[in-house]
Design a protein that fits this description.
By secondary structure, the protein is of the alpha/beta class. The chain contains 14 helices and 12 strands. Bound molecules: fructose -6-phosphate (F6R). Fructose -6-phosphate binds next to helix 3 and helix 11.
């Protein structure tokens, strides 16, 4: 049932404050200022390396997790798409944890990669939305997302719930490895607990995003730029737009622009820049200026301070609530989803059932 919403995708976008809160609720103990995961059958503190494997949007959630795990737990993280991981003779050493991220828990390549990692002696952790799925059954450490059934083929609420779980996982691993003080953990838990309200505040910009969708819908190509943990969000934004509006889009690490893609820039290519205030802001904005100097039309997604500082010469700006850089990827997912949604509606595509795509990809 779509309720008052025109499409399942929009309904699911709007469910995010609630389902992210539900998901966080099962991993955070806000009163104690602690994260608590289900206790695995193995010793998390003994993990020396994490290998993340997933496909599509779930892979981008995994990319964000790599930044978090390396930053907080100081454990090296490797990440690969499942269809590559299986066939490249990955080196799997003792003390390795393989972490699989999947909404459905049935994606054929991810499942095969899981079995391959198990044969290679890895402990298996699974972040999955369908608790009865095959991957859930085969996990040593099951980390469910509580997004509820996702009907829209383009993943939205499953993604932000995956991020919520992965953030909790990174913090728990960091604590177990002795890399996080109780005080730091308390601070991070407080920031994570702010995510649902921040998502809610981001949803308030729906009308503004709808109003600019018409101009993006005319484009043949769109670029998305981000840095650090917001770089995967650029990839996710481009994937979402491609999937449902059929407009060609690419996501790039903002600093990679001048190594090639900047050649594409002219006044016909909108460039969506994801730049929350924080340590990487100035660097991203200087890449944005390189785009503008070549006539590129920029949509800047930032917070009030960021837009006050850099929003002047943009085609449009979208104001996000000011959040800690840790939760920015969770919050910035919202405008990225809404933009793809409204552009697709302008183009009149079948938003919930895009051509050529299936909800669960059970063939290789
Ligand atoms: C994109 C999308 C796909 C899935 C991918 C993996 O909107 O939904 O890219 O993320 O097919 O599916 P799961 O997460 O079920 O393994």
């Amino acid at each position: 049932d779509k309720g008052n919403h025109r499409h399942f995708m929009l309904k699911e976008i709007y469910e995010q404050p609630v389902v992210v809160a539900q998901t966080l609720g099962s991993y955070l103990r806000p009163l104690e200022g602690r994260v608590s995961l289900p206790v695995p059958e193995f010793d998390l503190a003994g993990i020396r390396r994490v290998t993340i494997v997933a496909c599509g949007t779930s892979y981008y959630a995994g990319m964000v997790a790599k930044y978090w795990i390396e930053r907080f737990a100081r454990v090296p993280v490797e990440i690969d798409v499942a269809s590559e991981f299986r066939y490249r003779a990955p080196v799997l050493e003792e003390g390795g944890l393989a972490l699989f991220v999947s909404q459905s828990g049935e994606t054929a390549d991810t499942l095969a990669a899981l079995r391959h990692a198990r044969e290679g002696g890895q402990k298996i952790a699974v972040v999955v939305n369908v608790p009865t799925s095959t991957m859930a059954r085969e996990a040593d450490l099951l980390l469910p997302t509580h997004a509820g059934p996702e009907i829209g083929v383009a993943s939205t609420k499953a993604f932000t719930c995956q991020l919520a779980v992965l953030a909790a996982f990174a913090v728990n691993l960091a604590r177990d490895k002795g890399r996080l003080s109780a005080e730091e953990e308390r601070r991070i838990v407080r920031h994570l607990a702010e995510a649902p309200a921040a998502i809610n505040a981001a949803l308030a910009y729906d009308d503004a995003i709808e109003a600019m969708a018409g101009s993006i819908a005319q484009a043949r190509d769109v670029l998305y730029l981000g840095r650090g943990p917001d770089y995967p969000l650029a990839l996710e934004g481009a994937l979402k737009l491609k999937e449902i509006s059929y407009i060609h889009a690419e996501g790039y690490a903002a600093g990679e622009m001048k190594h090639g893609p900047i050649a594409l820039i002219d006044e016909h290519v909108p460039v969506i820049v994801l730049a929350p205030s924080g340590p990487l802001f100035e660097k991203t904005i200087s890449n944005m200026h390189e785009v503008q100097a070549r006539g590129g039309k920029v949509v800047l997604i930032s917070d009030y301070d960021g837009i006050a500082e850099a929003g002047d010469d943009c085609l449009a700006t979208i104001t996000m609530p000011k959040v800690h850089p840790l939760i920015a990827p969770i919050v910035y997912a919202i405008p990225v989803q809404l933009l793809a949604y409204h552009v697709a509606v302008v183009k009149g595509t079948d938003v919930d059932q895009p051509r050529n795509l299936a909800k669960s990809v059970t063939v290789e």
